[in-house]
Amino acid sequence: MGSARDERRDQLHQEERLLGGPGEAALVGGGRAARPDGTDSASSSPPKLRGLPVYLTEANVDSLLKPADALDAVEGCFQRLAAGEVENRPRQRLRLEEGVFAVMPAVDHGLRLAGVKAYAWLPRGTPFVVLLFDTESAELAGVIEADKLGQLRTGAASGVAAKYLARAGASTLGVLGCGWQARSQVACIREALPRIDRVVAYCRTTERLAAFCEEMDAEAGESHRDPAGCDVVVTVTTSKDPVLRGEWLRPGALVCAVGANEPRARELDNVVLERAAFVCCDSRQQSRLESGDLIEPVEAGVLDWLEVHELQEVVAGELEGRQSDEDIVVFKSNGIAAWDVAIGAVALEKARRKKIGRRI
Fold first, then answer.
1. What CATH number is attached to the domain comprising 193?
2. Most exposed: 35, 190, 256, 351, by fewest CB within 10 Å?
3. Annotation marks residue 117 as catalytic
4. Angle in degrees, CA 67, 120, 139, rounded to 5
5. Domain extent at residue 30
6. Do 106 and 47 fall within a single domain?
């Protein structure tokens, strides 16, 4: 006759792909032997059954998360950052033979999760992954392929910035760049600002611009100036040199600078910062390391780090941010690990509820 442990092992093998129910159970932890009656050799109490981590693919994430989910997750993350419930560390980059390996850790005490995002930037592609650890149960909670996850959380951060910093009645959105990240920028800002009724896009490749405009229901600009004349302006390019000039901006514009995250790469010229009445970022600590859009203006005396705030201060109501509808406001987005933990938590919760993904 098999032991209770054997029976549970058989049950687990049959149900390990299901989320919820008995299939979540794993073997007895700690390496202790089980008695024939199924009890732990060191205790007469029943063995503790541990849950298996959930593995979510890119397709799983795409089916689970919508812009509204990402906005809620990232806004909540900013609130917990302001409350001191989140510890976030800047991205660390290590050299590879033909690329870069990046690691981004964070602990969200409010969610009781610790996480790390890691990715390898290589010629053949860039695989992303987020690992989430349940700090209450001391278990690995999830392994999430994170390209789509990262796209959504980056778009959501701009959406949160637009919600709190765009001028009242903002109805036009300009996008410089037509790549993968640009799509979630449009989707999330539209979700955050339902009044947006016109999107103008521009990139240097005619074919990509046409495809982007058809997919995102946008109109093609003839030059960089056209998107720059909108109420909300997003720069989301791979350019090393400025693509947005301050003289092109209309009074009251919000600029979300998303692309450049290297010390000597810039999307904004100095005039953008000179005209800005309020400048904020996602993390001053990270911006000091990798945000050329802020580092170089500070070095040139155009800006001071004391004038650079964090968006969490606005979300929490500690700072007003915009003082008038005429103010030009800048949000510099680098991308922080805390967002990945927050949106990863939403993906895991929805996966469990909908029984999507697989146990590993």
1. 3.40.50.720
2. 35
3. yes
4. 70
5. 1-52
6. no
